[in-house]
Design goal:
- It is a single chain.
- The chain is built from 12 helices and 4 strands; from the N terminus they run H-H-H-H-H-H-H-H-H-H-E-H-E-E-E-H.
- The protein is mainly α.
- The chain has helices at about 1-25, 35-50, 55-65, 75-100, 100-110, 120-125, 135-160, 165-200, 200-210, 210-235, 245-255, 295-300, and strands at about 240, 265, 275-280, 290.
């Protein structure tokens, strides 16, 4: 079960990364060239309806195998079907981008970043987030496909892992764990790039010819390394480890090993769905130790 969970984690991260690549890489093959944007929208909606089909098949297959007590003998087949079902939304999304013209539709009709002048962003920095609206629309069909494909998988995980979480908790957990974890830093980089694009050409040329650009780039990298653990704490569902014997023993171990740490966090996986732990943060002020609820339940205090 642990190895299967680790493979699922890696495969889902890879699917999301590939989805970002598909969404923001110019297509090498021409789309079907629909002149009417409504045709592209209708084809995209049709693709959204097709996305959860493999996971619906997988849910029915698992229910039958649980009913006749043969699932344990078919774990390999279950793993293959699960991997295929996670790749299907990616393949459908690639078709939406390259054949249905969704990217062209967003660029031509849904992009509003040109309507936000630089002076508005200077006076109200949150307006800069409007520069990301067209990128968000590009990725939106894939996000919807993932959410729709997770709904049938909820019933699968309840059967296989005997989970006790609700459908809403299940979907939100996957969204935070596998999508926002990658999407937030990626869109932060896109925001920096888009802000650079709206700078006056004279200012861009001046920055390129000075050390200011290198200093700014270095400062942004350092800021990202420092702030990423803070972001991770709130993207994943975490809270301070409650006071008790385990926390006091861990704090004593931290003190004896002279490890600088901001906080020990309990990583909530909605009733124990993942055995994991991590340490994040390059500097002590933003270094966190995270342990999932399942890990704490599975191990003795000495372990």
């Amino acid at each position: 079960d642990i190895a299967e969970g680790e493979m699922r984690d890696v495969s889902l991260y890879l699917v999301v990364i590939l989805g970002l690549v598909v969404a923001f890489t110019p297509a090498s093959t021409p789309n079907l060239g629909f002149a009417d944007p409504m045709v592209s929208i209708l084809l995209t909606v049709l693709a959204l309806c097709l996305a959860p089909m493999p996971t619906m098949f997988l849910a029915g297959w698992v229910r039958r195998r649980v009913y006749d007590n043969t699932l344990s003998r078919r774990r390999r087949m279950y793993g293959i079907l699960r991997a295929v079902s996670s790749l299907f939304p990616l393949a459908v999304f690639a078709g939406v981008i390259t054949l249905c013209g969704w990217g062209r539709l967003v660029d031509n009709f849904l992009s509003i970043d040109d309507l936000i002048p630089l002076r508005w962003m200077v006076w109200c920095p949150p307006l800069a987030l409007g520069l990301l609206l067209d990128e968000a629309f590009r990725f939106l069909p894939f996000l919807v496909m993932l959410l729709m494909s997770w709904v049938p998988l909820y019933r699968v995980d309840v059967l296989v892992r005997r989970g006790h979480w609700s459908l809403a908790d299940y979907v939100v957990f996957h969204l935070r764990q596998y999508v926002l974890f990658l999407l937030v830093p990626f869109f932060a980089m896109l925001l920096v790039e888009n802000v650079w694009d709206v700078l006056p050409p004279a200012l861009q040329e001046q920055l390129r010819g000075s050390w200011g650009l290198y200093a700014l780039t270095g400062a942004l990298i350092v800021l990202a390394l420092i702030c990423l653990p803070l972001l991770l704490r709130f993207v994943w569902k975490t809270r301070p480890l409650p006071d008790g014997l385990l926390r006091r023993r861990l704090e004593d171990l931290i003190a004896r090993t002279h490890l600088r740490c901001r906080q020990i966090l309990l990583w909530d996986t909605f009733g124990g769905q993942m055995i994991n732990a991590c340490v994040t943060g390059f500097v002590g002020i933003t270094r966190y130790i995270l342990m999932t609820d399942t890990l704490i339940k599975a191990l003795e205090p000495d372990e």
